[in-house]
Amino acid sequence: MAVTKRTPLPVAEAVNKILNHTRLWGIEKISINECDNRILAEDLTATHDVPPFNRSPYDGFAIRSEDTKHASLDHPITLNVVETIGAGQVAEHEVKSGMAVRIMTGAKIPEGADAVIMLELVKERVADNKNQIIIKRSVKKDENISFQGEDTQEGTLLVKAGTKITPGIVAILATFGYHRISVYKQPVVGILSTGTELLDVNEELQPGKIRNSNAYMCAAQVRAMGAKIKLYQHREDNFDSLYKNIKEALQETDVLITTGGVSVGDYDFLPEIYKKLGAEVLFNKVAMRPGSVTTVAVYEDKWLFGLSGNPSACFVGAELFVRPVILKGMSVLKPHCKVTKALLSKDFPKPNPFTRFVRAILSEDIDGNVVTPAGLDKSSSVSSLIEANCLIVLPGGTRGWETGSEVGVITWHGEGSEWPWDHPLFSKSSAIKTVEKQR
Ligand code: AMP
Ligand code: MG
């Protein structure tokens, strides 16, 4: 097979090419019982005031504050308790001068009452067959009343479309009677690992073979991004059968991720398969390590992600390129990994023309964020993924990095970023400045 020359694209340009092709996944209505972590496709507006009526925040007595104006330890006043209401009940009486209604937390304040005195602050007694309370202090108007609309006013925009539904948002949905909710559909992402060396998880090791870890890792990553997964049987490096498998998988998926076989080796058939499919290859080389051979193509309205077989390269490829396709398709406002900065706790002396993504552990200490590379920094390393919670981004073309340098870090945890790639620390000049400062 002829080796075609590939031109490496800067990461930001590669991601941009992808963004130019994203499309929305469509909308469906689902029950409030199954909406956790889904992405809202409609704005949530308060359909009424909260609370919807003035109510009591305590167990106590609803009274007229005026009646207690002269109440004191020496001059207690007495009120007649005319009825008792619990939450959900409405008083039959209007509270007139000299009257009180025994009221429980959450119950509507009766007509005529303008304050609540807590149970603990009154003395109760029965006199002349009447329930009475004795009050030894004055109560101010509006004391202990939760007012209608004090939490939320009708018509307020509470949550915007494109937001992930958290337990707090579920409470909002329920409060305002949204029982069927418009959410974005989850794209179906197929994952098909290629490689004659691959065994499935349940198989015994054999000479020259390894277990397929990429498919399961990628499935977990993409599931966390909110997509539906279709895991395919891994396949041998065989052009004809692979072509057939991929063509079939494309019939039932929105996105097809393959792992392996995308480089320039004798058994790397993916580039030829894209050609035979007639897929439009957006890029087939990215100026990044690991994962420089990452290839992304579009075929009809489907996506093809050819991720490197190296576990770490595969991991990085999914976070950088698959994530925005899935999340932009759901109108998520921050569809990329979140970006932050940290101080490097290790030297990186090797210059590299490509942007490096180093699996690392981000932690906080008293001076701020510190980032430490995790395990073996080789794209074939799988153990470095155990603890890694971020990727250090070291722009290419620098003279290397020293301990204490400020570096940019991206992480798949948390709320994401609108566009991380313009961060000043991701440019080459920031690196040189930092290194010079150290000297
Ligand atoms: P490739 O991208 O096919 O050239 O594979 C690069 C390296 O990753 C080789 O050492 C493969 O054995 C390894 N590899 C490929 N696919 C997988 C996989 N699904 N799980 C784990 N390692 C893999
Ligand atoms: Mg291979």
TrEMBL record:
Pathway: Cofactor biosynthesis; molybdopterin biosynthesis. GO terms for biological process: Mo-molybdopterin cofactor biosynthetic process. Its EC number is 2.10.1.1. It catalyses: adenylyl-molybdopterin + molybdate = Mo-molybdopterin + AMP + H(+). GO terms for molecular function: metal ion binding; molybdopterin molybdotransferase activity. Its cofactor is Mg(2+). Residues 190-328 form the MoaB/Mog domain. GO terms for cellular component: cytosol. Pfam families: MoCF_biosynth, MoeA_C, MoeA_N. Keywords: Magnesium, Metal-binding, Molybdenum, Molybdenum cofactor biosynthesis, Transferase. The keyword Transcription does not apply. NCBIfam families: Glp_gephyrin (NF045515), molyb_syn (TIGR00177). Catalyzes the insertion of molybdate into adenylated molybdopterin with the concomitant release of AMP. Belongs to the MoeA family. This is Molybdopterin molybdenumtransferase. The lineage of its organism: Bacteria, Bacillati, Bacillota, Bacilli, Bacillales.
